[in-house]
Write a sequence for this structure.
Protein backbone atom coordinates (compact mmCIF):
# COMPACT_ATOMS: atom_id res chain seq x y z
CA UNK A 1 0.00 0.00 0.00
CA UNK A 2 1.30 3.42 -0.98
CA UNK A 3 0.75 6.87 0.48
CA UNK A 4 -0.38 9.29 -2.22
CA UNK A 5 -0.66 13.08 -2.18
CA UNK A 6 -3.16 14.69 -4.56
CA UNK A 7 -2.75 18.44 -4.96
CA UNK A 8 -6.04 20.20 -5.65
CA UNK A 9 -9.59 19.42 -4.47
CA UNK A 10 -11.41 20.27 -7.68
CA UNK A 11 -13.47 17.66 -9.46
CA UNK A 12 -10.45 16.04 -11.15
CA UNK A 13 -8.32 15.99 -8.01
CA UNK A 14 -11.16 14.49 -5.99
CA UNK A 15 -11.84 11.89 -8.68
CA UNK A 16 -8.15 10.92 -8.74
CA UNK A 17 -8.04 10.65 -4.94
CA UNK A 18 -11.15 8.47 -4.98
CA UNK A 19 -9.72 6.17 -7.66
CA UNK A 20 -6.48 5.75 -5.73
CA UNK A 21 -8.26 5.20 -2.42
CA UNK A 22 -10.52 2.56 -4.01
CA UNK A 23 -7.36 0.62 -4.86
CA UNK A 24 -6.45 0.44 -1.19
CA UNK A 25 -3.91 3.24 -0.97
CA UNK A 26 -3.72 5.97 1.66
CA UNK A 27 -4.64 9.33 0.17
CA UNK A 28 -4.28 12.92 1.32
CA UNK A 29 -5.68 15.77 -0.78
CA UNK A 30 -3.92 19.11 -0.21
CA UNK A 31 -6.15 22.07 -1.07
CA UNK A 32 -4.97 25.67 -0.79
CA UNK A 33 -8.49 27.03 -0.33
CA UNK A 34 -10.86 26.38 2.53
CA UNK A 35 -13.34 24.18 0.67
CA UNK A 36 -13.61 21.73 -2.19
CA UNK A 37 -14.16 22.91 -5.75
CA UNK A 38 -13.54 26.64 -5.40
CA UNK A 39 -11.53 27.06 -8.63
CA UNK A 40 -12.21 25.94 -12.21
CA UNK A 41 -14.70 23.33 -10.98
CA UNK A 42 -16.93 25.97 -9.38
CA UNK A 43 -17.35 27.99 -12.56
CA UNK A 44 -18.28 25.61 -15.36
CA UNK A 45 -21.43 25.13 -17.45
CA UNK A 46 -22.20 21.94 -15.44
CA UNK A 47 -22.73 20.03 -18.67
CA UNK A 48 -22.15 16.30 -19.16
CA UNK A 49 -20.66 16.42 -22.66
CA UNK A 50 -21.10 13.80 -25.36
CA UNK A 51 -17.63 13.77 -26.96
CA UNK A 52 -18.37 14.83 -30.53
CA UNK A 53 -16.15 17.91 -30.67
CA UNK A 54 -12.73 16.39 -30.04
CA UNK A 55 -10.24 14.82 -32.50
CA UNK A 56 -10.49 11.07 -32.88
CA UNK A 57 -8.02 9.29 -30.61
CA UNK A 58 -7.38 12.33 -28.41
CA UNK A 59 -7.43 12.13 -24.62
CA UNK A 60 -10.32 14.58 -24.60
CA UNK A 61 -12.42 12.36 -26.88
CA UNK A 62 -11.57 9.10 -25.15
CA UNK A 63 -12.04 10.34 -21.60
CA UNK A 64 -15.13 12.39 -22.39
CA UNK A 65 -17.00 9.43 -23.82
CA UNK A 66 -15.87 6.95 -21.18
CA UNK A 67 -16.24 9.55 -18.46
CA UNK A 68 -19.81 10.44 -19.40
CA UNK A 69 -20.90 6.82 -19.04
CA UNK A 70 -19.09 6.54 -15.72
CA UNK A 71 -20.56 9.83 -14.53
CA UNK A 72 -24.15 8.86 -15.28
CA UNK A 73 -23.62 5.58 -13.40
CA UNK A 74 -21.98 7.38 -10.47
CA UNK A 75 -24.81 9.91 -10.26
CA UNK A 76 -27.37 7.10 -10.21
CA UNK A 77 -25.55 5.15 -7.50
CA UNK A 78 -24.74 8.17 -5.31
CA UNK A 79 -27.91 10.23 -5.69
CA UNK A 80 -26.19 13.13 -7.45
CA UNK A 81 -28.80 15.37 -9.14
CA UNK A 82 -28.49 15.25 -12.94
CA UNK A 83 -30.61 15.03 -16.07
CA UNK A 84 -29.92 13.74 -19.58
CA UNK A 85 -31.79 16.56 -21.29
CA UNK A 86 -30.00 16.35 -24.65
CA UNK A 87 -28.79 19.22 -26.81
CA UNK A 88 -29.05 20.67 -30.28
CA UNK A 89 -26.01 22.06 -32.09
CA UNK A 90 -27.50 24.43 -34.62
CA UNK A 91 -26.66 25.91 -38.01
CA UNK A 92 -28.37 29.28 -38.15
CA UNK A 93 -27.62 29.75 -41.85
CA UNK A 94 -26.47 27.66 -44.79
CA UNK A 95 -22.80 28.54 -44.24
CA UNK A 96 -22.85 26.65 -40.92
CA UNK A 97 -24.26 23.37 -42.25
CA UNK A 98 -20.76 22.09 -43.02
CA UNK A 99 -19.59 22.86 -39.49
CA UNK A 100 -22.28 20.78 -37.79
CA UNK A 101 -21.88 18.01 -40.38
CA UNK A 102 -18.18 17.90 -39.45
CA UNK A 103 -19.07 17.64 -35.76
CA UNK A 104 -21.48 14.81 -36.59
CA UNK A 105 -18.82 12.91 -38.53
CA UNK A 106 -16.30 13.39 -35.77
CA UNK A 107 -18.77 12.22 -33.15
CA UNK A 108 -19.58 9.09 -35.14
CA UNK A 109 -15.86 8.38 -35.53
CA UNK A 110 -15.41 8.84 -31.78
CA UNK A 111 -18.19 6.36 -31.04
CA UNK A 112 -20.76 8.83 -29.68
CA UNK A 113 -24.16 7.13 -29.75
CA UNK A 114 -27.47 8.58 -30.86
CA UNK A 115 -26.26 11.54 -32.95
CA UNK A 116 -28.72 12.60 -35.64
CA UNK A 117 -28.59 15.39 -38.22
CA UNK A 118 -32.03 16.97 -38.61
CA UNK A 119 -33.44 19.84 -40.64
CA UNK A 120 -34.73 23.10 -39.25
CA UNK A 121 -38.38 22.06 -39.28
CA UNK A 122 -37.66 18.91 -37.28
CA UNK A 123 -35.53 20.89 -34.83
CA UNK A 124 -38.48 23.25 -34.28
CA UNK A 125 -40.74 20.32 -33.47
CA UNK A 126 -38.36 19.64 -30.58
CA UNK A 127 -37.82 23.28 -29.65
CA UNK A 128 -40.50 25.59 -31.12
CA UNK A 129 -38.65 28.80 -30.15
CA UNK A 130 -35.53 27.80 -32.09
CA UNK A 131 -34.40 29.42 -35.34
CA UNK A 132 -32.07 27.29 -37.49
CA UNK A 133 -31.75 25.67 -40.91
CA UNK A 134 -30.35 22.41 -39.53
CA UNK A 135 -29.22 20.89 -36.24
CA UNK A 136 -27.28 18.02 -34.75
CA UNK A 137 -29.33 16.28 -32.04
CA UNK A 138 -27.18 14.83 -29.25
CA UNK A 139 -29.56 13.10 -26.81
CA UNK A 140 -26.79 11.89 -24.49
CA UNK A 141 -25.74 15.34 -23.32
CA UNK A 142 -26.85 16.21 -19.80
CA UNK A 143 -26.58 18.59 -16.88
CA UNK A 144 -25.33 17.94 -13.36
CA UNK A 145 -25.07 19.53 -9.95
CA UNK A 146 -21.27 19.78 -9.92
CA UNK A 147 -21.00 20.63 -6.22
CA UNK A 148 -23.13 17.63 -5.27
CA UNK A 149 -20.84 15.52 -7.44
CA UNK A 150 -17.76 16.79 -5.61
CA UNK A 151 -19.39 16.21 -2.22
CA UNK A 152 -20.11 12.61 -3.25
CA UNK A 153 -16.50 12.13 -4.35
CA UNK A 154 -15.32 13.57 -1.04
CA UNK A 155 -17.58 11.14 0.80
CA UNK A 156 -16.12 8.16 -1.06
CA UNK A 157 -12.57 9.34 -0.30
CA UNK A 158 -13.29 9.72 3.41
CA UNK A 159 -15.19 6.43 3.57
CA UNK A 160 -11.97 4.73 2.44
CA UNK A 161 -9.80 6.47 5.00
CA UNK A 162 -8.60 9.36 2.84
CA UNK A 163 -8.42 12.94 4.08
CA UNK A 164 -8.64 16.43 2.63
CA UNK A 165 -6.37 19.08 4.16
CA UNK A 166 -7.75 22.58 3.56
CA UNK A 167 -5.69 25.78 3.71
CA UNK A 168 -2.74 23.60 2.73
CA UNK A 169 -0.82 25.01 -0.26
CA UNK A 170 2.13 22.91 -1.36
CA UNK A 171 5.17 25.17 -1.26
CA UNK A 172 7.66 22.62 -2.58
CA UNK A 173 8.24 19.04 -3.72
CA UNK A 174 11.55 17.17 -3.63
CA UNK A 175 12.52 13.58 -4.34
CA UNK A 176 14.37 12.30 -1.28
CA UNK A 177 15.33 8.72 -0.46
CA UNK A 178 12.77 7.16 -2.77
CA UNK A 179 9.92 9.37 -1.56
CA UNK A 180 8.42 12.71 -2.51
CA UNK A 181 8.71 15.20 0.33
CA UNK A 182 6.08 17.93 0.21
CA UNK A 183 6.43 21.16 2.12
CA UNK A 184 3.00 22.11 3.45
CA UNK A 185 2.47 24.92 5.96
CA UNK A 186 6.09 24.63 7.08
CA UNK A 187 5.96 20.86 7.60
CA UNK A 188 7.76 18.28 5.46
CA UNK A 189 5.62 15.25 4.67
CA UNK A 190 6.76 12.16 2.75
CA UNK A 191 4.64 10.37 0.12
CA UNK A 192 5.24 7.52 -2.27
CA UNK A 193 3.49 9.33 -5.11
CA UNK A 194 2.16 12.80 -5.97
CA UNK A 195 -0.54 13.91 -8.42
CA UNK A 196 -0.62 17.57 -9.37
CA UNK A 197 -4.27 18.36 -10.16
CA UNK A 198 -3.91 22.02 -9.34
CA UNK A 199 -6.03 23.42 -12.18
CA UNK A 200 -5.02 27.03 -12.77
CA UNK A 201 -2.27 26.52 -10.18
CA UNK A 202 -0.82 23.35 -11.75
CA UNK A 203 1.99 25.23 -13.51
CA UNK A 204 3.13 26.80 -10.25
CA UNK A 205 3.15 23.45 -8.48
CA UNK A 206 5.23 21.95 -11.29
CA UNK A 207 7.70 24.83 -11.07
CA UNK A 208 8.16 24.08 -7.37
CA UNK A 209 8.89 20.37 -7.96
CA UNK A 210 12.66 19.97 -7.61
CA UNK A 211 14.16 17.96 -10.46
CA UNK A 212 11.18 18.35 -12.76
CA UNK A 213 12.51 19.91 -15.99
CA UNK A 214 11.19 23.46 -16.37
CA UNK A 215 11.07 23.06 -20.14
CA UNK A 216 8.33 20.45 -19.70
CA UNK A 217 5.97 23.00 -18.15
CA UNK A 218 3.62 24.12 -20.94
CA UNK A 219 2.41 27.68 -21.47
CA UNK A 220 -0.25 28.88 -19.02
CA UNK A 221 -2.90 30.64 -21.09
CA UNK A 222 -6.07 31.98 -19.55
CA UNK A 223 -9.34 32.14 -21.46
CA UNK A 224 -12.05 33.83 -19.44
CA UNK A 225 -15.66 33.00 -20.13
CA UNK A 226 -18.53 35.11 -18.81
CA UNK A 227 -22.09 33.89 -18.27
CA UNK A 228 -25.35 35.81 -18.23
CA UNK A 229 -28.54 34.63 -16.60
CA UNK A 230 -31.91 35.09 -18.28
CA UNK A 231 -35.04 36.42 -16.62
CA UNK A 232 -38.36 34.74 -17.24
CA UNK A 233 -39.64 31.24 -17.84
CA UNK A 234 -37.39 28.82 -19.75
CA UNK A 235 -38.00 28.88 -23.50
CA UNK A 236 -36.19 25.59 -24.18
CA UNK A 237 -36.05 22.11 -22.65
CA UNK A 238 -32.70 21.16 -24.21
CA UNK A 239 -29.29 22.78 -24.33
CA UNK A 240 -28.77 24.87 -27.47
CA UNK A 241 -25.27 25.27 -28.92
CA UNK A 242 -24.25 27.31 -31.96
CA UNK A 243 -21.56 26.20 -34.36
CA UNK A 244 -18.22 26.39 -32.45
CA UNK A 245 -16.03 29.51 -32.44
CA UNK A 246 -12.30 29.99 -31.93
CA UNK A 247 -11.37 29.16 -28.33
CA UNK A 248 -14.70 27.66 -27.32
CA UNK A 249 -18.06 26.18 -28.22
CA UNK A 250 -19.81 29.50 -28.72
CA UNK A 251 -22.31 31.33 -26.52
CA UNK A 252 -24.69 28.51 -25.78
CA UNK A 253 -27.84 28.13 -23.77
CA UNK A 254 -27.61 25.86 -20.76
CA UNK A 255 -30.16 25.00 -18.11
CA UNK A 256 -29.66 24.34 -14.46
CA UNK A 257 -31.56 21.56 -12.73
CA UNK A 258 -34.27 24.02 -11.69
CA UNK A 259 -34.80 24.90 -15.37
CA UNK A 260 -33.25 28.37 -15.20
CA UNK A 261 -31.67 29.49 -18.47
CA UNK A 262 -28.16 30.92 -18.66
CA UNK A 263 -25.95 31.78 -21.59
CA UNK A 264 -22.20 31.53 -22.08
CA UNK A 265 -19.37 31.31 -21.95
CA UNK A 266 -17.81 33.73 -24.38
CA UNK A 267 -14.04 33.86 -24.88
CA UNK A 268 -11.85 36.65 -23.52
CA UNK A 269 -8.08 36.11 -23.52
CA UNK A 270 -6.65 37.54 -20.29
CA UNK A 271 -3.26 37.83 -18.55
CA UNK A 272 -4.32 37.45 -14.91
CA UNK A 273 -7.20 35.84 -13.05
CA UNK A 274 -10.25 38.10 -12.93
CA UNK A 275 -13.80 36.90 -12.37
CA UNK A 276 -15.73 40.13 -12.83
CA UNK A 277 -18.55 39.99 -15.39
CA UNK A 278 -18.60 43.15 -17.50
CA UNK A 279 -22.27 44.12 -18.08
CA UNK A 280 -21.14 45.71 -21.36
CA UNK A 281 -20.55 42.27 -22.83
CA UNK A 282 -24.30 41.72 -22.87
CA UNK A 283 -24.65 43.40 -26.27
CA UNK A 284 -22.46 40.76 -27.93
CA UNK A 285 -24.40 38.04 -26.10
CA UNK A 286 -27.71 39.39 -27.38
CA UNK A 287 -26.46 39.42 -30.98
CA UNK A 288 -25.18 35.84 -30.70
CA UNK A 289 -28.25 34.49 -28.93
CA UNK A 290 -30.76 36.08 -31.29
CA UNK A 291 -29.26 34.16 -34.18
CA UNK A 292 -30.84 31.00 -32.74
CA UNK A 293 -33.44 32.55 -30.42
CA UNK A 294 -34.90 35.64 -32.09
CA UNK A 295 -37.48 35.89 -29.31
CA UNK A 296 -34.94 36.78 -26.60
CA UNK A 297 -36.76 39.60 -24.74
CA UNK A 298 -35.14 43.00 -24.51
CA UNK A 299 -33.31 43.47 -21.21
CA UNK A 300 -33.67 39.82 -20.16
CA UNK A 301 -29.95 39.15 -19.62
CA UNK A 302 -28.30 39.75 -16.25
CA UNK A 303 -24.59 39.31 -15.39
CA UNK A 304 -24.11 35.97 -13.62
CA UNK A 305 -20.59 34.58 -13.16
CA UNK A 306 -17.30 33.98 -14.98
CA UNK A 307 -14.90 31.07 -15.24
CA UNK A 308 -11.38 30.69 -16.58
CA UNK A 309 -10.28 27.85 -18.84
CA UNK A 310 -6.69 26.66 -18.19
CA UNK A 311 -5.65 26.46 -21.85
CA UNK A 312 -2.30 25.41 -23.29
CA UNK A 313 -2.73 27.26 -26.61
CA UNK A 314 -3.91 30.77 -27.31
CA UNK A 315 -5.87 32.73 -29.87
CA UNK A 316 -5.53 31.45 -33.42
CA UNK A 317 -3.93 28.13 -32.44
CA UNK A 318 -5.67 24.73 -32.48
CA UNK A 319 -7.03 23.66 -29.09
CA UNK A 320 -4.56 21.50 -27.20
CA UNK A 321 -5.35 18.07 -25.82
CA UNK A 322 -5.27 17.26 -22.12
CA UNK A 323 -1.68 16.84 -20.98
CA UNK A 324 -0.87 14.02 -18.56
CA UNK A 325 2.85 14.11 -17.78
CA UNK A 326 3.79 11.01 -15.84
CA UNK A 327 6.85 8.89 -15.06
CA UNK A 328 6.89 7.30 -18.52
CA UNK A 329 7.26 10.78 -20.05
CA UNK A 330 9.49 12.69 -17.63
CA UNK A 331 11.37 9.85 -15.92
CA UNK A 332 10.63 10.76 -12.28
CA UNK A 333 9.00 7.91 -10.37
CA UNK A 334 5.72 8.53 -8.60
CA UNK A 335 4.88 11.94 -10.07
CA UNK A 336 2.03 12.93 -12.39
CA UNK A 337 1.25 16.47 -13.52
CA UNK A 338 -2.10 17.31 -15.12
CA UNK A 339 -2.09 20.38 -17.38
CA UNK A 340 -4.76 21.98 -19.52
CA UNK A 341 -7.70 20.10 -18.01
CA UNK A 342 -10.41 22.37 -19.33
CA UNK A 343 -13.70 21.33 -20.92
CA UNK A 344 -14.66 18.47 -20.94
CA UNK A 345 -12.73 18.05 -17.69
CA UNK A 346 -15.77 17.57 -15.46
CA UNK A 347 -17.28 14.99 -17.82
CA UNK A 348 -13.91 13.25 -18.16
CA UNK A 349 -13.00 13.31 -14.47
CA UNK A 350 -13.79 9.72 -13.46
CA UNK A 351 -12.14 8.27 -16.57
CA UNK A 352 -9.09 10.54 -16.27
CA UNK A 353 -8.78 9.46 -12.65
CA UNK A 354 -8.52 5.80 -13.61
CA UNK A 355 -5.75 6.52 -16.11
CA UNK A 356 -3.80 8.50 -13.51
CA UNK A 357 -4.27 5.72 -10.96
CA UNK A 358 -3.11 3.16 -13.53
CA UNK A 359 0.06 5.14 -14.10
CA UNK A 360 0.87 5.48 -10.40
CA UNK A 361 -0.48 2.43 -8.61
CA UNK A 362 -1.82 -0.28 -10.92
Amino acid sequence: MSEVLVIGAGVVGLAVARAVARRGHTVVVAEAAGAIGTGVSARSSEVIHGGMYYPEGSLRARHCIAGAAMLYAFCASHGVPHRACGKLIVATDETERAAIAKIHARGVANGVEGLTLIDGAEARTLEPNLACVAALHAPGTGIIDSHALMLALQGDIEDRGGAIAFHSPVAGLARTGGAWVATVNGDELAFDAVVNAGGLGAHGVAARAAGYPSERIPPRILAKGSYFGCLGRPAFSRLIYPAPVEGGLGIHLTLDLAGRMRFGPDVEWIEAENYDVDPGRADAFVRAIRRYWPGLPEGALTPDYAGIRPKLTGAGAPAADFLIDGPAEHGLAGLVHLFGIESPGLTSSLSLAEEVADRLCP
